[in-house]
Inverse folding.
């Protein structure tokens, strides 16, 4: 299992991890001819990230659920927004609820990624865009 703080954007489905759902968009979006999707804020004990849910996952997974992701992918959607998702070959399944230590910072989706100067096929962290999720800001 990989910690969320150690994920990096890549083209392949290779991420095996588990996390707790902290928050979720209430209104799934649907583009014409496409399956509905929504974003969730998820975290483990090392970091948080935006997790993209598709289809029935938008209704099934709720805040407090502990999810195991197998063969997940961390990649860009809409150009430069990085999200973790199961993708076509991955699988997300609920394995528990409510009891998990987590950290909301850093948020891996709020990091600017750039090509590695030593390996153009790999991305590295360039800078922090925001210390917390701008989509799911902390509640006071």
């Amino acid at each position: 299992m990989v910690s969320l703080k150690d994920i990096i954007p890549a083209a392949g489905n290779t991420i095996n991890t588990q996390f707790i759902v902290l928050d979720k968009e209430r209104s799934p979006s649907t583009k014409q001819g496409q399956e509905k999707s929504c974003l969730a804020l998820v975290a483990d004990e090392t970091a948080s990230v935006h997790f993209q849910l598709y289809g029935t996952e938008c209704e099934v997974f709720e805040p407090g659920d502990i999810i195991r992701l197998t063969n997940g992918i961390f990649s860009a959607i809409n150009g430069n927004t990085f999200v973790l998702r199961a993708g076509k070959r991955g699988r997300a399944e609920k394995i528990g609820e409510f009891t998990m230590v987590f950290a909301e910072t850093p948020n891996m989706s709020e990091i600017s990624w750039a090509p590695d100067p030593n390996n153009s096929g790999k991305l590295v962290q360039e800078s922090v865009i925001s210390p917390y999720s701008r989509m799911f800001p902390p509640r006071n």
Summary: The radius of gyration is 14 Å. The chain has a mean pLDDT of 84. Residues 45 and 101 are 5 Å apart (CA to CA). The helical segments are 57-60.
